[in-house]
Amino acid sequence: MAPYLGNRGYALPDSPFTREDTVVTATCGMGARYAAVTLRAWDAESWQPRAERTFPIPSDAAFTNYAGVKAVNSPLVDLCGMNPDNPSPYKVATLEYMAPRVRALFDLAFTRMAVVLRDPGNKEVSHVGYVVSGADLDEVVRLSDATGDDEQNAVMSPDGRSVWFTYSAPAGGQRIGSRSTEGAHRLSDEGPAAGHGLPLTVMGKPPRAVQADTVHLAPGGRRLTAKAPKVFGNVFDTWNSSGALTSRSAHRATLLSGCVGVVGWTGDDRVLCRTSSGTFRIMDSRTGRASDAPLSVVGPQDGTVAEGMLVSPDGKYFLVAVHPPNARRSDDDYAYRKPDHRVVPTTEEGAATGVVSDLLDTYTLFLSWS
After folding, report:
1. Cis before residue 325, ω within 30 degrees of 0?
2. Exposed, middle or buried: residue 27 (CB in 10 Å: 0-12, 13-18, 19+)?
3. Helix (H, G, I), strand (E, B) or coil at 164
4. pTM of structure
5. Within 13 Å and on the Cβ side, how many CA atoms surround 40?
6. Which tens digits make up the pLDDT trace of 152-180?
7. 23-27, 79-83, 238-242, 321-325: segment of lowest average pLDDT
8. Are the beta carbons of 308 and 280 closer than 8 angstroms?
9. What's phi and psi for 179, nearest 5 deg?
10. Predicted pLDDT of residue 122
11. 274 pLDDT band (50/70/90 cuts)?
12. Which of 77, 288, 58 is nearest to 199 (CA)?
């Protein structure tokens, strides 16, 4: 059965993270002896925080890549470990790419976070696991400890009942697999992978994985945006099995003209893109052509760029971060810096408003808007 209902088939527990008019952000914090991801649920009107959850990062979790350890592909590295010497494990690291990758680390209710764990006894081995909100550092759940595991790109299923990942198969090549969070955690083979170089997004009921970047499911569930090397298009039909986005699996492809980063859907046939000129435009997902005038967030003389992260549920607004071009975190750059986040109308009517809070920094990612 094709997952045409998307994730709407899941009943979510009531919490500040699952209620309407809520924006969820993620920030990675580090100290001398700890690292943790903090999620906050924000009121989308007042921008006051409603609730906070902390996910401790175990010492053997792959949240950065550095000399002497196995280089691991994980969206957690995007959130926590990027600096000039250790770039993103993925080829593109703009916010339109990073935000959906990091969102996939968590279940729909934001109660569990998937992690890749390095084997301290063997630098070539990595396993998957997960951390529960509020757990102690030593309470990570390890789903495998088999000798020779090469498991990467760990993400959560929508209901939090399984961790999905790419793995190296004994017969050679990489596959997509999953392990249940309950019982014996046995490996379930889910389908072919295109190596470890692309992230996963799991969606639908029953869950299916798409291996591609900038994955956003259309409101109606029948189309999705996605991007993969050497694959024509930005918008495709959903399919009923797990696998990598390839020229063979891509059906009814539409190329969005001039789109360099998909921000999200503003309607069932309309996609908001950042364009190659630096403006944002709503594109018709059927024809690939712009359907509205370009939206300029920054001026050509401002010396900054704007990157998009989220579209509001009604499609009327989107969230951007404004920063200097090619800005990256340096090794001594964990001090607080005032960010420039803005809520921008998706039409030419109205003005952008700033999002101001001392709890946000320049490396905060906006993950969901419900």
Report:
1. no
2. middle
3. strand
4. 0.95
5. 18
6. 999 999 999 999 999 999 999 999 999 99
7. 79-83
8. yes
9. -135, 130
10. 85
11. very high
12. 77
CA–CA gap between residue 35 and residue 1 (Å, rounded): 41
Amino acid at 263: V
Tell which residue, 37, 183, 168, has the closest CA to residue 102.
37
**What is the structure's pLDDT at 288?**
97
- DSSP H stretches of helix in the chain: 75-80, 95-103
In the DSSP assignment, the letter for residue 258 is T
Q: What's the CA gap between 295 and 275, in Å, rounded?
A: 10
What pLDDT was estimated at residue 82?
A: 66
What does each C-alpha distance from 273 to 90, 283, 290, 310 come to in angstroms? Answer: 20, 7, 9, 11
Positive or negative: CA dihedral 239, 165, 162, 44: negative
- pLDDT, mean of residues 269-279: 96
Q: What is the DSSP string of 193-255?
A: ---SSS-EEEETTTTEEEESEEEEE-TTSSEEEEE-TT---SEEE--SS-EE--TTT--S-B-
> How far lies 264's CA from each of 245, 278, 312, 367, in Å?
18, 16, 9, 12
For residue 2, what pLDDT is reported? 39
